[in-house]
Amino acid sequence: MKLEDYKHLIAKAPFGYAYHKILLDDTGKPIDYEFIDINPAFERITGLESSQILHRKATEILSNREEAWSRIPVYGDIALHGGEKEFELYSEWNAKWYKVQIYSPEKNYFVTIYNALHSIDKTTRVRSKIPDVIDISNIKHTEEALRESEERLQLLLNSTPDIICFKDAQGRWLVANKADLELFSLTAVDYIGKTDMELADFTHPVYKEAFLTCAQTDEKAWAARRPCQSDETIPLPDGSKKIYDVMKVPLFYPNGERRGLAVLGHDITERKLAEEALRDSQMRYKTLFEGCPHGILVADLDHQQILYANPSICYMTGYTEAELTNSSIFLLHPMEERSRVKEEFEALSRGQKTTADAIAFLRKDGIVFYADVAATLAHISGYDCLMGFFTDVTERKKAEEELKKAKSYISNIINSMPSVIIGVDVYGKVTQWNWEAERKTGLASGEAIGNSLEKVIPRLAGEMEKVRRAIMARERQTDPKRSYQENGEIFYEDITVYPLVANGVEGAVIRIDDVTDRVRLEEMMVQSEKMLSVGGLAAGMAHEINNPLAGIIQNVCNIENRLSDLHMPANLRSAELAGITMEAIHTFMESRGILRMVRNIKESGSRVAGIVENMLSFARKSEFAISPQNISDLLEKTLELAATDYDLKKQYDFKSIQIIKEYEENLPLVPCEASKIQQVFLNILSNGAQAMHGNIVKQKYFGEKFSPPCFILRLKKESNMLCIEMEDNGPGIEESIRKRIFEPFFTTKPAGAGTGLGLSVSYFIITETHGGSMSVESEAGNGTKFIIRLPLNKTGNML
Amino acid sequence: MKTILILDDEQAVRESFADYFEDQQWRTIQSESAEQALELISHEKPDAAIIDVRLPGMNGNEFIREACKKNSNMVFVLCTGSPKYNLPKTLLDLPCVSHNLFKKPVCNMNDIEKAILQTIEKFQGKLDQNE
């Protein structure tokens, strides 16, 4: 580049430029300088024209500006010894502040560069009324004013909480305000002319890092050649820190060289911390939202559209977040669930409820799952929203369904049991009531459950003690063959109380089995056994009794014959030998009652024979196997037997009873034990005869009209049964007695007159031994009819 | 006059039968055992016999079978105090044995006499036919 080019550059430069020669006195002390060259910018800044000032002494031109004179030593120093200096000055000419940089291009010469200052408050500078640099005529006054101005500026700088610092091109501190010095604990340090790194040694070591960073960001600003903003964190000795929003303004000479750096910092610690806190909490919420294992959907109330969806709900539904966002909430549900979803959504929206259970969801892949939702209203992004938290309950629902199935299976088992099963809690409240319980009590489970046991089945009131004992001892309690009466009938039941011990469910189960039939059968069997053993005993004894009995009876017969038979040849012979007539003997015997006595002996003997015979009837029946029998023959024989039986007892005459036989013809033979069937017939006939006799006696006594006693015997074939009906016209049986007539030991006869076994044994023989049936029909005053059915083939339950 | 054998080990019973039949113009012979009775019938030749079943030694059934061989003109009626006793088929097949079984005590001894006379009549008829 040629000199002309440089001159041109200088002439066009935006900064003011003046080339001076220092003037020395005889001792070599700088006393003045003269203007060698200036550029147009200098003229604009100072108002001085080159024609007026070139090659003229400054003391002449600036005679009124003492302040300008005061800088002569500084200028001289630079011109003579090199180096650089800068200062600021106010140009009254154009009312602007300038930064003035001084350097020496060659010995005895110095250059001043004027750059306009922008970043500093002009009004303050204006008010400071720093005199124009040119005004050197009144230098003393100017210096004073300047000093005052600087003080004010200092005051101003120091009163701001922002940090302010000016550095030269080498990073040396020129001026720093109080806030800055305090920040770096430099208030007691002569900082001027020192670099950041140098200052680091004068203060707390904690700043070292900050100074280093400062120097680096300074360089950045220099490199960028424009104001640079950065956040700088300054650690403090007390362990806390401060954050500043720092603006670094690099200043350059017109020739592009570095001139200085202004550092301005605003304390943003609080804002930063608040921001950080906000960011932290935002992050936390974001993490919560995204990391939440529950699906989260935010939907706006008006459009029922999804605004936000978290990753969990995406995972659950198989949709991406993008697919869900702005979709209708109904997208996520199967068709058939949508009306419910709508209802639930609206209910949740109105705040009527906060949860909805087991809502069906339709995944993108078509799989249905179930989720519970907990919802809350929120105002998000300017919308009224419903925020829902979804928990997948498919497994639970499945488990519930399985549980339900298992439950119904178990209750089916319980219900189908033929026993009454009643569950009770520790307080005796019914918790379970099966079908058999309903059937037996006529009380539906709904009516029974929740009520106390004694209320629903009063007769079980006493069982609560067992329930308590079962629960306490964790042991089964039994109460077998417990009897109770209902409508005059006796029933038997086995009661078993089981404690419930599993899973902490306190309570017990009461099982009731109706064993009435079994108990009655058992009792009958016991009686039957008794009779059989009586029969066995009689059979063993009979021979031993019958022989001496024959000795008594047969001899008595002979005695009677020999004492009373007037025509027996042997009698006549013996009487003649004794010299007496048979007539005389007979008269004697009659008058002394001998023949009566003989007859008494004979009859008593016969009664003993009858008793032995009766006892033997129990024994004989077990000797005969089942064989085909003609029932009408058996009936005939039994009638004969009954006639003699009652003859013996002399109470009434069985022969006087009319017997009407209504037998079908060609009746088949019936497989049975003849003696047992006869025993049954005899029993019915004798009972009937007694009843009719007693009735007639009573009717006679009261003078009532009575019909003669009568039995109607009927035999008829009914498919595979032979039906035998034996009807009397006696007084009949009352209903309450009729029901119990087959019960063992149930008798209406006076004590000692009957054992109460006859009909029960009969019933036992017919139903159990022969597999038949036996029933009784009767009405008080209208006779009694026994109906016996015997199977014609041996399919009956033979014992 | 017909002769009847009373075979019974019970004296009171045996004598009561004997007394009754004597009164009814029978000649009676008594025996308390089957063995003794078998000796008696070989020379006494009774027309009929009342036989107890349970006897010391040989029982009534065996006696009848033996007696038949010795005296083919005799008829037999069994009379027992055992309630379990029934006439065995071997005896029922013999025409000289009454099908009427009498059980002690026999309250009406006229019945047993009738049965004996009937059996004699039937048996005699049979014998006549055979001849």
Characterization of this structure:
The complex is a heterodimer of chains A (about 800) and B (about 130). In chain A, about 30% of the residues are buried. Chain A is an alpha+beta fold. Chain A has 6 domains: about 150 residues, PAS domain (Beta-Lactamase); about 120 residues, PAS domain (Beta-Lactamase, 2-Layer Sandwich); about 110 residues, Beta-Lactamase; about 100 residues, PAS domain (Beta-Lactamase), CATH 3.30.450; about 110 residues; about 180 residues, Heat Shock Protein 90. With about 130 residues, chain B is of the alpha/beta class. Chain B starts with a strand and ends with a helix. Chain B has one domain: Rossmann fold (3-Layer(aba) Sandwich), CATH 3.40.50. In chain B, helix 2 runs parallel beside helix 3. At the A-B interface, helix 21, helix 22 and helix 24 of A face helix 1 of B.
Biggest sheet architecture of chain B: 5 strands, parallel
Q: Structural class of chain B, please?
A: alpha/beta
Instruction: Please write the string of helix (H) and strand (E) elements of chain B.
Output: EHEHEHEHEH
**Percentage of residues in helical conformation of chain A:** 40-55%
Q: What's the SSE blueprint?
A:
The complex is a heterodimer of chains A (799) and B (131).
Chain A: H1 3-12, E1 16-24, E2 30-38, H2 40-46, H3 50-53, H4 58-61, H5 66-70, H6 72-81, E3 84-91, E4 96-103, E5 109-116, H7 122-128, H8 139-159, E6 163-168, E7 173-176, H9 178-183, H10 196-200, H11 208-224, E8 228-235, E9 241-252, E10 258-267, H12 269-291, E11 295-300, E12 305-309, H13 311-317, H14 321-324, H15 338-349, E13 355-362, E14 368-380, E15 383-392, H16 394-416, E16 420-424, E17 430-433, H17 435-441, H18 445-448, H19 453-456, H20 464-473, E18 477-486, E19 489-500, E20 507-514, H21 516-564, H22 569-578, H23 582-592, H24 594-621, E21 627-629, H25 631-649, E22 658-663, E23 670-672, H26 674-701, E24 710-718, E25 721-728, H27 735-738, H28 758-769, E26 773-778, E27 784-791
Parallel strand pairs in A: 22-24
Antiparallel strand pairs in A: 1-2, 1-5, 3-4, 4-5, 6-7, 6-10, 8-9, 9-10, 11-12, 11-15, 13-14, 14-15, 16-17, 16-20, 18-19, 19-20, 21-23, 24-25, 25-27, 26-27
Chain B: E1 3-7, H1 11-23, E2 27-31, H2 34-44, E3 48-51, H3 60-70, E4 75-80, H4 89-92, E5 97-103, H5 109-130
Parallel strand pairs in B: 1-2, 1-3, 3-4, 4-5
